[in-house]
C-alpha cells in the first residue's frame, strides 16, 4: 500500500512538472484575453474582436490542425474565421481519432494547448523579420537556459533578469524609431489576443492529460521513469518558461492597450 501511495505521489508531481506551467500560463492567458476582448468591445463595439481575429484566429486554428495531423487525427471540418456565433466562437477544428490508439489519445493534450505554442512560434518568427536584435537576444536566452544544470537563488535571479532584459530589448529606443517595430507590435497583439485556450480546448486537452498521467503511473510502477533525471526536468521547465514568457508579456501589453482604449472611450461619454 505504501508503494502505491509513493508511486501515485510521484506521478502527480511528475505530471505537474511536465504540464503544470503550461496549464497555469494557459489559464492566465485566458483571463487576460477575456478581459481584453471585453474592453475592446466596450470601446469599439461588439464586432471589435474581428479586428484582431483576422490574424489571430487563423493562427489559433491552424495550430490545432497542425498538431491534429501530427498525432494522426482526422480533420473533419475546419473554420479559420467566422462571425462570432452565440457562444462567441470565431473558428474551430473538428477532428476525430481512434480511441484505441494511445498515441492519438495523448495527442488530445498537445492539440488542445497547440495555440499557445503556435502563437508563440509565429511571434518569434515575426521578431526575426522585424526586430532582429530582440530575436537574437531571445535565442541567446534559450541557448543559455538549455545549459542550466541546477537551480539556486543566483541562477533564478539570472533567469528573471534575462527576461526583463528581453523586454527592454523589444521596447528599446532604437526599435521605436524602426517602422517594422510597429508592424511587429500590431501583428503580435492580434496573435496574442487569440493565443489562449477556449473552453473546448481545455476540455480536449484534459482528455489527453489523463492518459499522460496513466502512462507516467505505469512507467513509475515498473521503474522505467528513472531514466529521466532531475536535470532534464529542470531544463524542460526553464525552456518552456522562456517561450511562455513571450506570450505573457504580449498578452499583458494587449490588456493594457485595451484598458487605455476603454478609458478613452468612457471619457467621450
SSE inventory with pairings:
Blueprint: H1 2-44, H2 49-70, E1 74-79, E2 92-96, H3 102-130, H4 132-146, H5 153-170, H6 173-176, H7 179-192, H8 199-221, H9 230-268
Antiparallel strand pairs: 1-2
Helix pairs in contact: 1-8, 1-9, 2-3, 2-7, 3-4, 3-7, 3-8, 3-9, 4-5, 4-9, 7-9
Key features of this structure:
2 strands, globular, 269 residues, 9 helices, mainly alpha, two-stranded antiparallel sheet, single chain
Instruction: Provide the structure class.
Output: mainly alpha
Helix content: over 70%
Percent strand: under 5%
Number of strands: 2
Outline type:
globular
Radius of gyration over all CA atoms, rounded: 20 Å
Sheet with most strands: 2 strands, antiparallel
What is the straight-line distance between the termini?
Answer: 67 Å
How confident is the prediction overall: mean pLDDT? 83
Low-confidence stretches: none
Describe this structure in words.
With 269 residues, this protein is mainly alpha-helical. It has nine helices and two strands. A two-stranded antiparallel ribbon has the order 1-2. Helix 1 (2-44) runs parallel beside helix 9 (230-268) and helix 2 (49-70) packs across helix 3.
Short précis:
By secondary structure, this protein is mostly helical. It is built from nine helices and two strands; from the N terminus they run ααββααααααα.
Amino acid at each position: 500500500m505504501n508503494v502505491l501511495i509513493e508511486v501515485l505521489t510521484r506521478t502527480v508531481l511528475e505530471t505537474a512538472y511536465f504540464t503544470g506551467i503550461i496549464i497555469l500560463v494557459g489559464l492566465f492567458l485566458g483571463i487576460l484575453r477575456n478581459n481584453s476582448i471585453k474592453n475592446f468591445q466596450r470601446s469599439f463595439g461588439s464586432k471589435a474582436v474581428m479586428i484582431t481575429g483576422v490574424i489571430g484566429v487563423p493562427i489559433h486554428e491552424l495550430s490545432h490542425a497542425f498538431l491534429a495531423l501530427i498525432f494522426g487525427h482526422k480533420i473533419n471540418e475546419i473554420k479559420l474565421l467566422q462571425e462570432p456565433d452565440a457562444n462567441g466562437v470565431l473558428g474551430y477544428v473538428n477532428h476525430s481519432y481512434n480511441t484505441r490508439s494511445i498515441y492519438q489519445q495523448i495527442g488530445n493534450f498537445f492539440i488542445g494547448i497547440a495555440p499557445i505554442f503556435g502563437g508563440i512560434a509565429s511571434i518569434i518568427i515575426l521578431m526575426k523579420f522585424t526586430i532582429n536584435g530582440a530575436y537574437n537576444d531571445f535565442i541567446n536566452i534559450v541557448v543559455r537556459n538549455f545549459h542550466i544544470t541546477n537551480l539556486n537563488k543566483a541562477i533564478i535571479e539570472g533567469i528573471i533578469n534575462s527576461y526583463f532584459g528581453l523586454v527592454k530589448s523589444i521596447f528599446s529606443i532604437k526599435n521605436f524609431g524602426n517602422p517594422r517595430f510597429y508592424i511587429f507590435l500590431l501583428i503580435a497583439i492580434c496573435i496574442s489576443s487569440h493565443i489562449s485556450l477556449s473552453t473546448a480546448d481545455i476540455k480536449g486537452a484534459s482528455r489527453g492529460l489523463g492518459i499522460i498521467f496513466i502512462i507516467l503511473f505505469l512507467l513509475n510502477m515498473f521503474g522505467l521513469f528513472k531514466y529521466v533525471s532531475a536535470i532534464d526536468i529542470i531544463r524542460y521547465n526553464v525552456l518552456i518558461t522562456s517561450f511562455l514568457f513571450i506570450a505573457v508579456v504580449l498578452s499583458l501589453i494587449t490588456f493594457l492597450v485595451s484598458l487605455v482604449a476603454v478609458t478613452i472611450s468612457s471619457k467621450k461619454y
